[in-house]
Amino acid sequence: MIFDVITIFPDFFNSILEHGLLKRAVARGHLQIRLHDLRDYTDDRHRTVDDRPFGGGPGMVFKPEPLFRAVEALKKGSAEASFPVVLLSPQGRLLKQVVAEELAREARVILICGRYEGVDERVAESLATDELSIGDYVLSGGELPAAVVMEAVTRLLPGVLGNEESRAQDSFTSAEENTAVGRRGLLDFPQYTRPADFRGLLVPEILLSGNHEEIRQWRHRQALFRTWRKRPDLLLTLPLGCDDRQILEELQRSSCEPVRT
After folding, report:
1. Domain assignment of residue 41, yes or no
2. Position 21 pLDDT exceeds 60
3. Which domain, by its residues, includes 89?
């Protein structure tokens, strides 16, 4: 997969690409990340990428010309018939796991990192094919959101994690991506490791039993409980079975954490 990132701060991504998942994915040939300085697509000696907004107001706005030139240059001679051009914007649709899954099916994605007061609206209307936001808050630019998008998408690419079962058990994973473990988009279940007794805080006995079926059932119940307690909104759209609904009804009647052993 290829990410083309258009930014006025390409050096911002240096440390991100030198560590962790993205570095490994690039090194193993699963991913290419190509950084493009927007100022290289200007036509004046000051390399101007922004200007004052029409109608007045504070701040500066990214001009349309450099962004159109950049995207058109990246598309020129491309073997792909079409691919997403994503504008990172607080006005975009919220980045959720299902959106990351959509992008992971693409061979190439262009990410446009906005800055200042915003981007000329003609970029959003006529150049970008999608707008994404990573949350209901405002950042100074699109570089951090671009890094988040790349991380979320890259970990879904086949072979990147090495352990596909680990990916399938991620919180928020959609039904299409998570049929094997039967969690269907629930939050993750609690995880424990050694020691079994830490300062009197004990690991649930069921996890020490060696009974894989009982452990599976316990984990599924815990995932349901966590989702009901922390993100009940997720349950409104999940395809819950009769057994799941019965467990949730029990939880709602008791209004307390289920027995963990």
Report:
1. yes
2. yes
3. 2-154
Q: Is 170 a catalytic residue?
A: yes
Q: Active-site residue among 24, 155, 167, 226? A: 155
Active site residue: 53, 84, 90, 190, which one?
A: 90
Amino acid 168: pLDDT: 55
Q: Domain with 191 in it: what CATH number?
A: 1.10.1270.20
Give the residue-averaged pLDDT of 208-232.
94
Average pLDDT, the chain: 90
Q: Are residues 49 and 115 in the same domain?
A: yes
- Determine which one of 120, 143, 170, 177 is catalytic: 170
Catalytic residue at 155?
yes
Average pLDDT over residues 69-79: 91
Would residue 195 show up in a list of annotated catalytic residues for this protein? no
Which residues touch 35 (CB under 8 Å, ≥6 apart)? 5, 7, 10, 13
Active site residue 45: no
- My answer on whether 168 and 217 are in the same domain is yes
Q: Which of 65, 102, 106, 117 is catalytic?
A: 117
Residue range 5-24: mean pLDDT, rounded = 96
Q: What is the pLDDT of residue 9?
A: 97
Q: In the prediction, which pLDDT does 174 show?
A: 60
Tell me which of 129, 154, 179 is where a domain ends: 154
